[in-house]
Each structure stands twice: as structure tokens, then as C-alpha cells.
């Protein structure tokens, strides 16, 4: 395998990096769509993220990389195995990076059950697909807009459920399928259907960097990496290790991260005020905010977590409104949250327009 460019050496593109890292902390957020022109480090960053993620503990000889600590998610084979082999042996393996070919078919993605064998010999034979290989890892789909819509739907379902269930003629096989979903597309080559767009939890738009100093930095680092990939990786090892540990620590406390009724109101008021279609965005913002709090080592969310999450959850879901043309920024969102809270936390009824004015005049 050729050496992989370090994630922490990617210059700029902070939103993309944040979206990737938060999905790594909490894959159940449901994936990220990266939209941008060619040559903007999309695939480099995704591959680099997988490479720095901590090794995962798996059941030895399980074809689906089952997590020994989550028996409820085990594949059909591990469930059967544990009856005569308890406890199941475990080992560590690197986080897989799976690149989905654009020509992938449904069978190739979900796997296939050999029905003939089942009928003839009474054996259940399952041929694993991409969803099996991607379990516990990162599934990368380059140019997701060119993939068959039905296949994209399957992938998004699986990312949301963390499980792949294949049923045919009364025979069923299931295995865990919990992965970090990363899709990329170049909007110049056709867009995704709006229904599919909305199913990607987060989206980021990336552009080539305009700051000359940043561009110089990109050149210098690329040249450094090309000249001596191993030496370059060595230089960044410390930073890579720090981020890896931070992600691992965040995963440990993610389930403990709490939120209040006020946080939910902030999210709902924000999405309502921005004309966001549907309700998916609200949950995505909450999940992403929790992942961000965990990433910073906290066990409760705050307004900044919400704003940072909204910045990633909203760009592809706002149809009209003040942000249609301009980019939504974290600062805009945080300001908006504060305004909305100001309006709802005073506890006093809104003055009826005109009425207060006339009362004031009478006093004078
Ligand atoms: Zn298994």
C-alpha cells in the first residue's frame, strides 16, 4: 500500500475536516457529502482520516468484523458460533477504508444469499458485499452523483441502521454494517436528486483556497510528501496520534453527552426560522452537536456545538431565505441562536404591534 498523506497536514478546509472527524466520533450521524471542484483534497482527506483512526477490536475470523463488545449487533455466524465457543477470540485490526466503484450493483453492495445451496444442502451460504467490508470502517464513494440512485438509497439506509439484513425465500442473514459514509461530487457534473441530498446528514462545499500563503503551504507540503513520504509522515506522527486519541476518547464519552430542553428548543427555533424542509435536520444537528461536545471532552452540549453542527447540517437543506446566496457561517448561526433565545427566554408575551406604542404615548 502506498504511503498515505497525513490528515493533519491537509491545509485549510476546516469544515470538511470537522465533518469527517465528527462522523468518525459518531458514525450514526449518517455521513457527509463533500461537494467541490476537482483537486481539492477530497479523497486525500477521507483516506487520511481512515488511516489515523484507532485500530478496532474484532472477533477473530469473523468475515464482518463484529465488535466483541456488542453482542446485540453480531452477525448470524457469530451468534451461532458463540453457542459452542464462548467467549469468542478477539484481535485488533486497522480501520478499513473501502472505495466503492461507481459501477457497483445492489448485489455487490449488500451481498448475496446462495438460495440453491440452501435448498439442496440445507446450508446457508452468504457471499459478503461492500457493506460487510466497510463495517467499522470508512466507506468512500467518489462521484456519488453518478452512482445508481437505488444503490445510494441502500447505502444511506445501511448507514442509518448500522445493520445489513438480506432476506430471500424465507432465509435471512444479517450482519453489522456501521461505517463512516463519505460521498463526494463535483456539482458541475450533475446534482443529486433532492431526496437523496437530504439523506446525507452533513454536507460541505469546498473551494480551492484563495489565500496565496495557504496555496504556498499546499505546494510545500505536497513537494515534501512526494520527495520523502515516510519521512514526511514521521514528521506528522505526533499530531496524527493526538487526533487519533482525541477521537477515541470522544467515542468513549459520546453516550454520556447530555442536552437540555432548552438546547432542543434552540435547534428547533433555528431550523424553523431558516425555512428548513422536513425534520431530519433537527436530529442531525443534535447528534452532531453531541459528537462535537464529546470531541472537546465535554458531556453536555452548548450553543457553540449547535452552531458548529448546524453549519454542517444545513447547507443542502435550506431552499429559500437570507442565506440562499451567501454562505452560512458559524458566527451567523450562533448570532441567530442567541437572537432566538432572547425572544423566547424573557417569559413575557410579545407586545402587540401598535398597542405598546399607544400606551407609551398616553403616559407621556
Ligand atoms: Zn461476526
Summarize, please.
With about 375 residues, the chain is an alpha/beta fold. The protein has helices spanning about 15-25, 40-50, 75-80, 105-110, 115-120, 130-135, 150-160, 195-200, 210-225, 230-255, 260-275, 280-295, 305-315, 330-345, 355-364; strands at about 30-35, 55-60, 90-95, 95-100, 110-115, 125, 140, 165-170, 170-175, 180-185, 200-205. It has two domains: about 5-55 and about 95-210 and about 220-230, Rossmann fold (3-Layer(aba) Sandwich), CATH 3.40.50.300; about 255-345, Magnesium chelatase subunit I, C-Terminal domain (Helicase, Ruva Protein, domain 3).
Q: What can you see in these coordinates?
A:
This protein is α/β, with parallel strands linked by helices and 364 residues long. It folds into two domains: 7-55 and 94-208 and 220-232, P-loop containing nucleotide triphosphate hydrolases (Rossmann fold); 255-344, Magnesium chelatase subunit I, C-Terminal domain (Helicase, Ruva Protein, domain 3, Orthogonal Bundle), CATH 1.10.8. Helix content is 47%, strand content 13%. The chain has 15 helices and eleven strands. The strands form four sheets. A five-stranded parallel β-sheet has the order 4-7-10-1-11, sandwiched between helices. Strands 2-3 form a two-stranded antiparallel ribbon. The structure holds zinc ion. The site of zinc ion has 8 residues, from helix 3.
